[in-house]
Design brief:
Order of helices and strands: EHEHEHEHHEHHEHEEHHHHHHHEE
CATH topology of the largest domain: TIM Barrel
Helix content: 40-55%
CATH superfamily of the largest domain: Glycosidases
């Protein structure tokens, strides 16, 4: 890699940077195979739940841990990938502390000795206040972080002249910067104070933006005095354990590639479900101006289909697309899922008996999806099944309930009686304390929250009901 950011290799690849259990060594070896196939060049090690990456960042790795990390670094190199080691000291670092600077150097020196060459300091998801002793030396958090990062960067370059060095700011998206998280003029100060050879991460206008535009990226680059590296959270799901996303890389124009110093994906926590997101990201990064996310998705799903062999009845490609469309992207479902949603809405809003064609289409499509979910219990690829089975079960339960409700409404003999489903009983279905809490506040379409009109004073259970 070259020494100057704007002349350096364009970074493409994967960040293992989510909250949750880090991937296994077997998954990481598979990851490197997939990355090489996608044309990626960089793997960034930054799992939030590695205690020595974040909460206990000062502590060096044990002999066993160091050996495992060295094996990982070597494996990345053998796959033609750059290994980028990230450290996240921001929770409790004192920027003016000599001992903390020595701890940073000591930790990175250990990783250097294991074969790593490229590094990153992360200051995301931390309190945006300085210790009193830091405030005596710097007038802003941005200046304190830049000073510390510059010092570590200079030290690293003395050890490894070819090192690529990255930085993640405390306000790492447009909303945070607008609300002055990290302090007033944080990004402008950072752009002025941070050495120009150091790359800066950015997620976009939001932590998970629906779109990233060329103009907003150019404006940011002007403020930072360098092209940003996108920390891509489009398929991240660590903020909601009930969801995963296997839809295509989308919402970013092909022209965006020219405005960046790199694009690294922070993906689903569950490793096996990232196949389609990564394959489509690779095609976006190396594709043509007429990039089509849906077409890339359908092609990638055809390749992923081979992982869905079962011990029983097969899962068709068409049914897999329907299933995938139900787990598409944060801001949209896929077209096949949208069709099913629209059919269901019409039947619940109107009279199913008056819409025989719509009823027939619903029966056919919903049964395909329900049966597909059922057959996934027999997947031969058990790691894949284990990664998705909770969501598969939830989707199957919802489809089953809707089928029963619509059939009830379509039956002249019982349609005017209350609908109940013996397999969907209170508290065992859609239950839990969290679900009860979620009933208090209703989020409107514009994002505002309102208090629910009807609030129960206590959970209704057989033990608490009056006799």
């Amino acid at each position: 890699m070259q020494n100057v950011s704007n002349e350096a290799t364009f970074l493409t690849g994967v960040i293992e940077g989510f909250y949750g259990p880090p991937w296994s060594s077997v998954e990481r070896m598979t990851l490197f195979d997939w990355m090489r196939r996608c044309g990626f060049n960089t793997y960034m090690y930054a799992p939030k739940d590695d205690l020595k990456h974040r909460a206990q960042w000062r502590q060096q790795y044990t002999q066993t841990e160091a050996a495992d990390l060295q094996t990982l670094i070597r494996a990345a190199s053998e796959h033609g990938l750059e290994f980028l080691y990230a450290l996240s000291p921001g929770l409790d670092i004192t920027y003016s502390s000599t001992s903390d600077h020595e701890a940073l150097q000591g930790k990175l020196a250990q990783v250097l000795s294991l074969g790593a060459k490229h590094f990153c300091l992360l200051f995301d998801d931390i309190p945006d206040q300085m210790h009193p002793e830091d405030s005596k030396r710097w007038t802003s958090l941005a200046a304190a972080q830049a000073s510390t990062t510059n010092a570590i960067f200079r030290w690293i370059r003395q050890q490894e002249p070819s090192s690529r060095f990255l930085f993640c700011p405390t306000p790492y998206c447009g909303r945070m910067a607008m609300r002055e998280h990290g302090g007033k003029n944080y990004l402008a100060i950072l752009g002025q104070e941070l050495l120009p050879e150091i790359d800066v991460f950015w997620t976009g206008s939001e932590i998970i933006p629906e779109e990233i535009t060329v103009q907003e990226t150019r404006d940011l680059a002007s403020l930072l005095r360098r092209k940003p590296v996108v920390w891509e959270n489009l398929h991240a799901n660590d903020y909601d354990g009930r969801r995963f996303y296997c839809g295509p890389y989308s919402g970013r124009p092909p022209e965006l590639r020219q405005e960046l110093a790199g694009l690294l994906c922070n993906p689903n926590c569950e490793f096996p479900v990232n196949f389609v997101p990564w394959l489509t990201l690779g095609k976006f990064l190396h594709g043509s101006p007429d990039w089509n996310p849906r077409q890339a998705y359908l092609e990638a799903m055809r390749e992923w289909h081979s992982q869905f062999l079962t011990a029983g009845a097969p899962i068709s490609y068409e049914d897999l697309v329907l299933f995938g469309d139900c787990h598409y992207l944060p801001y949209e479902s896929g077209p096949e899922a949208e069709i099913l949603f629209d059919l269901t809405r019409k039947l619940l809003q109107g009279d199913p008996l008056a819409m025989p064609d719509i009823l027939a289409q619903f029966r056919e499509r919903s049964e395909r999806l329900r049966s597909c979910c059922a057959r996934m219990a027999e997947l031969i690829n058990r790691p894949l099944f284990n990664a998705i089975h909770r969501r598969v079960w939830e989707l199957r339960e919802e489809i089953d309930l809707l089928q029963r409700c619509i059939e009830h409404r379509a039956n002249p003999a019982i349609r005017h009686t209350p609908f109940r489903a013996d397999f969907h009983l209170p508290h065992t279905y859609r239950g839990s304390f969290v679900a009860d809490l979620q009933k208090f506040l209703v989020q409107e379409a514009d994002g505002a929250f309102t208090v629910a009109q009807s609030l129960e004073t206590k959970r209704s259970t057989p033990e608490t009901n009056p006799a």
